[in-house]
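Fig. S4 source data, part A: sequence.
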Amino acid sequence: MTNPVIPGFHPDPSVCRVGDDYYLVCSSFEYFPGIPVFHSRDLVHWTQLGNALDRPGQLPLDAGTPSSGGIYAPTLRHHDGRFWLIVTLVTEGGGNMLFTATDSAGPWSDPVRLPGVPGIDPDLAWDEDGTCWCTVAGVGQVRIDPYTGETFGEPRKLWSGTPGAMAPEAPHLYRIGAYWYLLIAEGGTERGHGVSIARGHAPTGPFEPCPANPVLTHRSSDRPIQNTGHADLVQGPDGSWWMVLLGVRPRGGTPGWHVLGRETFLAPVEWVDGWPVVGELSPGLAAPGWPLVPGPVEADRDDFDLSELGPRWISVRDRAEEYCTTKERPGWLTLRARGDSLDERDVVFAGRRQQHLRCRVRTRIDPSQGRGGLAVRLDEEHHYEIEASDGEVRVLGRVGPLRAVVASRPAPAGPVVLGVRIADAPSREARTGPDSLTFGIEEPDGTFSALGTLDGRYLSTEVAGGFTGRVIGLYAAAGTVAFDWFDYEPLAD
């Protein structure tokens, strides 16, 4: 088995167990719909059920929301017969919000606002008498009424983590055995990231730190998984303990670039003298001691035959049907332009997370009434695309303040197949990037004609900054464009 268990841009995992079933959510930042919801029976194979925030009233992301703004660090819990989801919306008029559902696949409620809860990374925990405690980055805590959003008293400081460590955040509070445990991330979500824990006899503390903190970190190591942190604990089917957490897979030369974003990994946990000891976290995951239950295999190709896009499709900030629909032209995805390029925050875009280090993506586009194409996006200032208009195809690159037409060629009238192949960088020198992206057009006989190859390092977090990962998808930049199909093909190592 392999780690990550949920590859691609799926950061800040939070997990809960309900009977024999497991449910997990992740951050989604500026993308709509928000907060992907996954289900598993074995902690290893995960199937996306939907997205918790799939209505504009739940997730108001306007053009003022910056990239890497939006939805931060949800916590998912199951209590008193329902699912509870608490999250921070980082945008004008945002703040902490709470949603509920009786079915994790939805529908989820409208938000309960929590104006008395400061900060980010909110957690929920209930003590024996039903009191609900909300713990936030910092690490502070306040009692809340989860039904109304009312807070009781002022937030109070619980624990600041390891002295000298930056950014104590991502708190999760649990009752395990005789103690309440407070699990946090610290060190920042970059190479210094780690997981630390403290315990006390009450949910309000005082908390004593684990003498072996951090209980997990890969800082200052050459391990292939880095930035390890933002963890959550859960019991396996056999009663063993496990940790889900985020990590990245940097590649290339110095300093190493990760392009898929922060991904969800799984690691075993044992308890020794009342403290968790985290086992080996590596790309090869040892088989757990219970039967594996693979979920349904998702098709690599989408022919846009359904009335709605599937749950893995995400758009930038919103997805109004007047701009993005499969209903206007049966069997096609129709996009109507709003912003005139991927540089604009209101661009009409629909894509899916890049989940494999190597892949080939193709689409058949009809640009006879507009201009659009196939893009690999990190944010408004870092994206590559191959774009078709009536009679021309061109490859474009945007890196910071620079925007260039990399290559162009005439195109035949009518629909055309555009493609991108993402593969290892051709050399292994110290300054070699993590991968290369080759854009081109498919000829009528099925051969691929490359137009331009671009260095993948410029679509990485180490260059662009922020908290997301690559999303590959379709966009409209002028008029109306339609897409017959979209094919995402993972490639072998």
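Fig. S4 source data, part B ends here. The two ends are 15 Å apart (CA to CA).
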